[in-house]
Amino acid sequence: MIKAAILYICTGKYDVFWKDFFESYERNFLPDTRKEYFVFTDADKLYKEDECDRIHKIYQERLGWPDDTLMRYHLFDTILEQLRLFDYIFFMNANCKCVAKIGEKEFLPIEKDVVVVQHPGAYRKKPRQFTYDRNPKSTAYIKRGHGKYYVCGGINGGKAAAYINLIKELKRNIDIDKENNIIARWHDESHINHYILEHDNWMLLSPSYCYAEGWNLPFEAKILVRDKSKYFDVDTMKSGKFIALLKKIKNAIKAVNWRKKCHF
Fold it and tell me: How far is CA 74 from CA 79, 95, 164, in A?
């Protein structure tokens, strides 16, 4: 049986999506594949974590904005030895929900190495309208007149060896930018768009596999990307004030637990 690792990050309030994500992927995604979930989270408890030995929880605090998204490949890099045991590796955004059956033949990059998904906001646009990173000092830079597609950053994957190479390459490029005090325009998404410009080993899927909730797209919704604003204040989540408040709450809880332990 094919083995696939699914990478998932749900720090802060994003763990609200985990239950629906897990149930929908178990029900609809790659039914003939053994799926194991590597969940980077600061949640105390994950749905089904005690019942399913295919859920691997990795403690991860919020990094703050934009590092919560920009540094995701650095998180994946910490478990490469485990990932090498799989045939395929996929990353899915926390707010994804698999709403239709997705079989191996349609999703696995058999003839290619990597799978990426066309961004739903870009499929009708011409390349000159794509929001590529145009800063020539960034490793994500794409020169005007170059590039044919714009892909989303939140759904991608591939054959294990190829995807591990992708993880290493994007991590290295992001580190170079950080050393030069540069942050790519759309963070990790800018970097993966640069990746597909530099490589030809990828298979492109339609926005069916990144269908934005509430949009009217001429595609069948297969992976729905839920509207985060229905679950929490996204702007507050991105702000430094939220991080500071979260740490304050955690410290208060630790203090209470310590007092209980010491009986005063």
Answer: 10, 20, 11
Q: 225: which strand partners?
A: 96, 212
Burial of 214 (0-12, 13-18, 19+ CB in 10 A): exposed
8 A C-beta contact, residue 99 and residue 223: yes
DSSP, collapsed to helix, strand or coil, labels residue 196 as helix
pLDDT reported for residue 231: 84
For 44, what's the count of Cα atoms within 13 Å in the CB-facing half-sphere? Answer: 3
153: exposed, middle or buried (Cβ count in 10 Å: 0-12, 13-18, 19+): buried
The values of phi and psi at residue 163, to 5°, are -70, -35
The DSSP line for 145-166 is T--S--EEEEEEEEEHHHHHHH
Contact 73, 9 (CB under 8 A): no
What pTM was computed for the model?
Answer: 0.88
Q: Which residues in the chain land under pLDDT 50?
A: 242, 245-246, 249, 255-264
Total residues found in the chain within this entry: 264
Instruction: Give the model's pLDDT for residue 34.
Output: 98
Which residues on adjacent β-strands are paired with residue 102? 29
Percentages of the chain per state (helix, strand, coil), in multiples of 5: 40, 20, 40
pLDDT tens digit string along 148-182? 999 999 999 999 999 999 999 999 999 999 999 99
What is residue 27's predicted lDDT score, i.e. its pLDDT? 98
